[in-house]
């Protein structure tokens, strides 16, 4: 069984996702919280419902250009995506990418992917992705290897 602080941590994290992630992931978070609450003993459920740990309002989130559920499915399946992208200056490009991570920040979301055009790992702001098409092709490297390489390059410790 969960300890009280573990319940608070789960509830706080899930409430942040429900409020700050894209719609599909937010709905999944709310469903997960309801399922957790349903199996808790009544005293822990009451404590979770009465938690004083709150998710405060954040800056408005820059709208996503595409449905991030498509990106998440590609990440899970290690599938390539074809994207149309506009950089910060508005220049358009077509790319085939190997998405392996999504970053959720307070104001925006970022897809981390190997870009075949550039031959390197690149960061793509979700609000600048104009269109995305899931491809049947799997990418030739494992997602975990790409993630490890990216973390090392960025100086981000594994968790």
UniProtKB/TrEMBL annotation:
Residues 68-133 form the WYL domain. InterPro entries: CBASS_pafABC_assoc_protein (IPR051534), WYL_dom (IPR026881). Pfam families: WYL. PROSITE patterns: WYL. This is Helix-turn-helix transcriptional regulator. It comes from Azospirillum himalayense. The lineage of its organism: Bacteria, Pseudomonadati, Pseudomonadota, Alphaproteobacteria, Rhodospirillales.
């Amino acid at each position: 069984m969960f300890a009280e602080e573990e319940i608070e941590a789960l509830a706080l994290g899930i409430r942040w996702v429900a409020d700050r992630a894209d719609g599909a992931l937010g709905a999944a978070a709310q469903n997960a919280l309801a399922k957790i609450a349903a199996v808790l003993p009544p005293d822990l459920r009451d404590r979770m419902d009465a938690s004083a740990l709150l998710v405060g309002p954040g800056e408005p989130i820059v709208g996503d250009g595409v449905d991030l559920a498509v990106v998440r499915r590609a990440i899970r399946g290690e599938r390539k995506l074809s994207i149309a992208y506009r950089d910060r200056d508005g220049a358009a490009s077509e790319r085939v990418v190997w998405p392996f991570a999504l970053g959720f920040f307070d104001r925006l979301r970022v897809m981390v992917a190997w870009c075949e055009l550039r031959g390197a790992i690149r960061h793509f702001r979700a609000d600048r992705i104009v269109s995305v098409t899931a491809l049947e092709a799997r990418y030739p490297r494992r997602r975990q290897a790409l993630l490890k390489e990216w973390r090392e390059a960025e100086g981000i410790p594994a968790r």
